[in-house]
Design brief:
It is a single chain. By secondary structure, the chain is mainly β. Strands 1-2-3-4-5 form a five-stranded antiparallel β-sheet. The two termini are 25 Å apart. The mean pLDDT is 91.
Length: 127
Amino acid sequence: MTLWGEASPLIAADPVVRYFAARRLALDSFSATLRCHPKLTYWHTLNNRPMALGDFPAMLALITDHAGRWVGLHRTYLTDDGRKAAVVHPETGEALPTKKMMAIHPGACTGAAVRLGEPSPDGLLAV
């Protein structure tokens, strides 16, 4: 959970909040399952060798199992103004994924979710 500890709870000026706003997703309050990492290194493995391809602001989201236990972390690499980061393959120039997931062990995230809130009293759940 080192990355989680390096990240901060969301505030209005964060790239993460700008990311949601650009998608017309207004948040009345910020979920405790989301944080903003100010400068997260994007790692890519090329020819069995890990390479750092840059540092980006990132949205971190806790992934929990059905019992609410932490089982992983979802990372979305962003720009300062809240767009998805442009990360390119160093040899082909091809765009690399801006979203990555890490699990505490293989298969740990099966059936798990990022819970942004509780269902409303009338049973509605935002997905």
